[in-house]
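Recall the central idea of this unit: under ordinary conditions, the amino acid sequence of a chain determines the structure it adopts. In this exercise we apply that idea directly, starting from the sequence alone.
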Amino acid sequence: MAREKFSLVVITFNNADTLERCLAAADFADEIVVLDSGSTDATVEIARRHGARVASHPFDDYGPQKQRAIDIASHDWILNLDADEILSPGTRTVIEHALENPRVAGYRLPRRERMFWSVQHRWSHRNGHLRLFDRRRGRMNAVPVHAAVEVDGPVETLTRADFVNMGDDDIAARVDKINRYSSGMVADKLARKQRFSGPMMLLYPPIFFVRQYVFKRYFLSGWAGFIASVLGAHYVFLKYAKLHETKRRAKSRSLDAGA
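Accordingly, the structure predicted from this sequence is:
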């Protein structure tokens, strides 16, 4: 049975270290679209070597940039990957089978995280992410920091497929990302007028650690899983701590202005 054709969509900026593996693992796509935002390394050369349609646009934010790349694509079905995400062996067969007669608006693919010097164990919990979808029924949302695809219709998870996020190759990179992301999340919480919750700052980080390390089985990844769980709890803590700090500063400025 013939399957639906699909376009692989990737946005890039100086991703030469990972783009080769990303595109090689997904070279069964009917089309590869790479939207670059001014790379100065070999990113564009690598994309062209894999037969990609390469376009360029200055980066403003993740969601809008991804949507531009999706809009460039020729096919209605989109496989949306970041330049540091690599499909695992066997995922091709699962995707091609799913596209033979799709009755849903999209499919989630489980994601395994790179944990510094190792990769998340296959038997630990893998979060599903909507990465294969019919663009006629979906588009990127406008959520700051963690923008993602939203579709109008049912979604299934391809449990026998997954991909690896190669983003953080050391602890320093993960800590830097946590600091940037937590600051971005504060802006989102303020926009939604979310109130600061002291008990959440106190209780949720240890709850998060136990859920991640024990119930999601990160302990299977050894010390890397333990460190990743601690840093995840730290990220949760920072979101609430920075929200508290921002609100305190705003209150102080208001009092000073009224003095």
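The chain has two domains: 6-165, 171-258.
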